[in-house]
Amino acid sequence: MPENLGPSRPNAVDAAADAARRPAGPLDASLAQASGEALAALATANPERAVHDLRKAFKRLRALLRLAQASEDKAVAAEARRLRRALAGDARQLAGARDVSARRAALDDLQAKGHLSAPQRRAAGRSLTPPARQDREGADAGLSPHRAGLAARLAELSAAAPQLGAALHGKSLVAALTAEYGKARRLGRKADPEDEIGLHELRKAVVAQRYQMELLVPAWPALGAAWVAELQRLRDKLGKHHDLCVLRARLDERISSRPPAWRAPLIEAIGARQLKLAHSALRLHGRLFTETPKAFRRRIASYMSAVSDGK
């Protein structure tokens, strides 16, 4: 492992300063920005907001680290993989608070789309989601024990980021972006609207692609921003589908010999909404990922070449 990728653990203040004084290239710039977002989230007083923003920043960081894993430098690739997996583990520690928010969002979505009446929504909410005060306390209890460890992780990442970010540029960055595009394309093309596991894997790939494609926005701002916005729409559809999976899992945990009146309508509503979201998401996926990876590679290479040539 290169000397700069060793086990040093600078503190969070040093990490924030380091993130502020870089970067060199597009991947380095994005890693620096995402590290700063994570540090800001960790400093947020509201635990619910902190958990939400941390998980969001971690998703972006992991998406960027997936690109760095494609480095021809084996030590850099291994360090990117290690940090990505470590961040995934950190995110799982915060999943409990996120699951409560997901259940609440799913119920709100079902009511907004007319699948549940207001009384049914209230009754289901009382049973399946805690009061807001308990929600905040739960988020704080889930975050507080991990704050020091998370700060150390982010400091470690910020120290390694300059070398990780510099590992890909030009053709190597285009190749890594193309590989990630190809993965998201394959997952969507073989996805079954009724396969929750397959759609979950697709959602993760789309989340990564959404953050990775931000690297191309400077090459063609108008088109790049529109593309990222459409990827975000796809992510939102698949995210709502996943929230419903989380809600259904909680419902299945609370089986009773005398089920409440709202249970059957809720189960029916979840199934109907999930199917509609899945079909809508896959249609959008088909439009966004219509290009073959080879054609995609040619296109983004031409954009980046034009920028580097000053055209």
UniProtKB/TrEMBL annotation:
Sequence ranges of Low complexity compositional bias: 9-24
All copies of domain CHAD, residue ranges: 14-294
Signal peptide positions on this chain: none
InterPro entries: CHAD_dom, CHAD_dom_sf
Annotated region (Disordered), positions in chain: 1-24, 111-143
Highest taxon, organism lineage: Bacteria
PROSITE patterns named in the record: CHAD
Protein name: CHAD domain-containing protein
